[in-house]
Amino acid sequence: MRVTTSKSKNSESFYIPKSYTNAEGKSTSTTIKKLGTLAELSERLGTNRDGVMAWAKEQARIETEKYKKETEDAVVTIPFHSNRLMDYNRKKLFTGGYLFLQTVYYGLKMDSICRKIRYRYKFKYDLNAILSDLIYTRVLEPSSKTSSFKAAQQFLEAPTYELHDIYRALSVLAKESDFIQSEVYKNSFFLGNRNDKVLYYDCTNYYFEINYNDTDLVDEEGNIIEKGYRKRGPEKNHRPDPIIEMGLLMDSTNIPISFDLFPGNESEKLSLLPITRKTKSNCNLGRIVVVADRGLNTSDNIFFLSGRNHSSNLDGYIYGQSVRGADAEFKEWVLKQDDYIEELVKNDDGSPETFRQMIFEDNVFKGYEKKNVVFKHKSRIYPKELNVTIDKNSKKKTKVKTDQKQMVYYSQKYADKQKRDRNLMIERAKDLIKNPQKYNRITANGSAAYVNNIKFDKSTGAIADGLNLSLKLDKIAEEEKYDGYYSIVTSELDMTDQELRNKYRGLAKIEETFKITKSELNTRPVLVWTKEHIESHFLTCFVALVITRLLEKKLNNKYSIHKIIDSLKKYNTINIEHDLCIQNYSDEIIKDLGKIFNIDFSRKYLTLSEIKKIFFSD
Fold first, then answer.
1. Which helix (H) or strand (E) holds 94?
2. Which region among 196-205, 224-233, 406-415, 607-616 has the lowest average model confidence (pLDDT)?
């Protein structure tokens, strides 16, 4: 509490007011004590105005302590009037979970980023308010931009902008996407350490609920000026809708660094080099080692990332390597057993890591048996021959050689999985051979690879009539030889096999991250259609992803993203009467967040002014 004064023509009076937030969310105050006039107090205290003010401030301090003591265990009495009418158009329920996201948002200095952008434009709307609300609603109530605007009305601080301002802001956000990504990365160091020496990269796609492809923008000579994003391409769930591809770079702490978009019909193999170069430049990164799956393992991605041979001033790579698709020399080396090393894999506490091994008799599954995980591995330095595209304007390839560490390991667990998956396809293939009329090009996907002489009608996709279908026994026998073997290749010639395997296994986290964007953040289907709006949609999803990952990290990875978001969705505040609110949900996650942000959530009743002071104070 503080001291205020009011002056009239002949006197000056001293008061102690108490500030609070009313039911409409506006700050106001009420006088709790009148101390007297200057003349009265000067005569009583025997001092001048400075002495009176010092005494008044002490009274305010005493009243503040008295108020705190009274409210520590206060009994709240709410008068009940049976004939009281409803308060029309008065907001009672407030979404509260966004307040925790807000602490991370401002920890990333997003308001400062928005101010820098505003200096470059002449818009009048509040970009920071729009961007923050789009991010909060993407986490708590993901939907269209219109629905997000409506959802933000339930926040303690409702939007003061209009819906049309959101769409205007989307165009600005798209233009500033690279700048925002780089600033978010740099500012994230204020919230904790990052490990940007080893980066993980992968691609995924998101669909649009439309039945046509975007057209490319071309000049008078037919040269492409701008490619359309929404194109039909390989989609994991075999949807016929146009898709867009997204490439994501993530650090070793599972926090995204940058993303990029490219048309749905383009190969992901072409995306790695552009995004790594752009990210290194925008984020001022030093030497990096990029970890990616075998789909990105191409001659160009090896050569242009790490050069002809490993050098300290060049970047590095760790890629998965197909064993079944490798050349004969590599396969022969894999199957040679006399130089493998076998080591027990141990947990952090030193105990042996175990798995359930599948038991088969006469190719029939009988059950599981508990086994220790054995890391059976070997490696070599090999002069890898690459066919590199030196001239982008020419299809001619240039042969070069570079030293590469090649590591192969055997996993019984992986072998069981491959055997199980193949057996499912073989059973379907047998049924396809017996009943070809039940299948078409789509439903036969996977199993058709094990059938000889299969052909599909180009117009209907059905299996053609009169074919002599049979099982590819040679293919099955060839695949069985390599069950359980997996290879990883790298430019890091001094890296141990164990370290190489551990770093590569981190790719599982980027797969998990993609699942979060599609399930928790509902990034798909994409509900905007212009190029700029599509780019800004993915930008807000990206920042939302960074914030949730940082929140997960602050909680020491104790809870999954799903559980964290679920708790945030449930945490709401109900305004009972006047300034008084009841906190209607709490759990272990909310309690832990309170400890992290030094917020006391043990009290069931709080005032609106107290809530705002907790979250909105600097």
1. strand 93-95
2. 607-616
- Contact between 232 and 265 under an 8 Å Cβ cutoff? The reply is yes
The count of other CB atoms within 10 Å of the CB of residue 202 is 22
Place of tokens 């299969």: 454
DSSP secondary structure letter of residue 216: P
Query: Token pair for residue 283?
Result: 């984020």
- Between CA 579 and CA 567 the distance in angstroms is 25
556 torsion bin: left (phi>0), alpha (psi -120 to 50), beta (else): left
Q: Is 407 exposed, middle or buried (0-12, 13-18, 19+ CB in 10 A)?
A: buried
- The angle at the Cα of 121, spanning 116 to 125, to the nearest 5 degrees, equals 90
Closest residue by Cα to residue 580 from 33, 3, 66, 74: 74
- What is the end-to-end Cα distance of the chain in Å, rounded? 18
Q: How far is CA 225 from CA 217, 218, 228, 348, 456, in A?
A: 5, 5, 10, 54, 37
Tell me the one-letter amino acid at 256: P
Please choose, from the candidates 204, 266, 213, the residue with its C-alpha nearest in 3D space to the C-alpha of residue 524.
204
Burial of 120 (0-12, 13-18, 19+ CB in 10 A): exposed
Copy the structure tokens of residue 261.
């978009």
User: What is the CB neighbour count within 10 angstroms for residue 305?
Assistant: 22
User: CB-based contacts of 156: which residues, under 8 Å, 6+ apart?
Assistant: 25, 94, 95, 96, 99, 573, 608, 611, 612
Residue 77's pLDDT is what? 66
Tens digits of per-residue pLDDT, 265-275? 999 999 999 99
Place of tokens 């001048």: 48
Instruction: Say if CB 483 and CB 360 are below 8 A apart.
Output: no
Please tell me the least confidently modeled range out of 51-55, 80-84, 195-199: 80-84
Q: Are 5 and 15 in contact (CB under 8 A)?
A: yes
432's CB contacts (< 8 A; 6+ apart) are: 438, 439, 444, 447, 448, 451, 454, 463, 469
Q: How many CA atoms lie within 13 A of 540 on its CB side?
A: 34
Model pLDDT for residues 217-232, shown as the tens digit of each residue: 888 888 888 899 999 9
For residue 82, what is the DSSP state? T
